[in-house]
Amino acid sequence: MENRLNYLDVVCGICILHIVLSHIAQNVGLDNKLGGVLHVVFWSMAWFFFKGGMFHKDRSFPVSIKKNFHRLIVPFLIFSALGEIEYVICALLEHNPVGIYDISICTFKDLISKGYVIGNPPLWFLLTLFVIKTGYSFLGIIGNLKRSLIILLFSLLFSVLLYNITVPLYWIKNIPMGLFFYVAGHLLREKQYSRYVASLSAVILIVIALFFDSEVSIVMLKLNYGNFYIWIIYALAAVIVANNAFKWLGKYCSLKSIGRLGENSMIIYVSHWPIFMISHCILSMSGLQNPTVLFLLMSTVVLIIVYLEYKLIQKYNLGYVIGL
Fold it and tell me: Is the pLDDT of residue 3 over 50?
């Protein structure tokens, strides 16, 4: 178990690094130049849902709500508020003051329609995962293979349906897709490591990468390029290959630095957006416009401040703010 957790921490570290760097690259206008490199880990969000399913625990519905509220909704609320404060600060620094009433109305509308606030969009994942984890407990899936397979099928069908229609509350669109990967992780927790599943996944991954390369944004269920339906298989195969590859690699090297990023992925995930947004605002005010320099500086600032946050949380026993 310990070795498995260690190598999963490494995969988690790679995924969280991909998410942070992708967001910063998009923000400074380097997504076209770095897109090819960052696309290698196109499966990062799918992996987080899959991993959640791997470690789904058999709890009663009330206990599940309590545990998941503490683990997911508390950080969602705290860092949504901090994100909104960052948004107001940036607006003031850029001489675009916003009224309390206006920001309150916009925040409410964003939460209802998008599932996140404008000051910290990545938090959509926490809300979606909360719905999935509590819903899965409510359905009483543990030990019921038939019911799990039915949920897997229906989540896939609903994902296809929502991809092809317009839904005003678009945060609802990512729930079935997240549920699909979550249930897949639950069903394949051990089976993914069999030689047959791992080999088949590797073949599928290589074939699709060579001939049908695709990318989908789960948050809006939006096709960036390629084929939506192929991407689902593509992402699932990539997740399985990554878990197997780093399980094997973990026998020969530890990759502790990346693993530590994975161990602390929550604090990195919930705080990276406000940090790099306010740092971008300050750097831009200084006259710095070079995208590459901005990307490097903002990435460095995020890592430094997240490290300081981690130390602060340890020192003052503030683990509850990140769901610990």
Answer: no
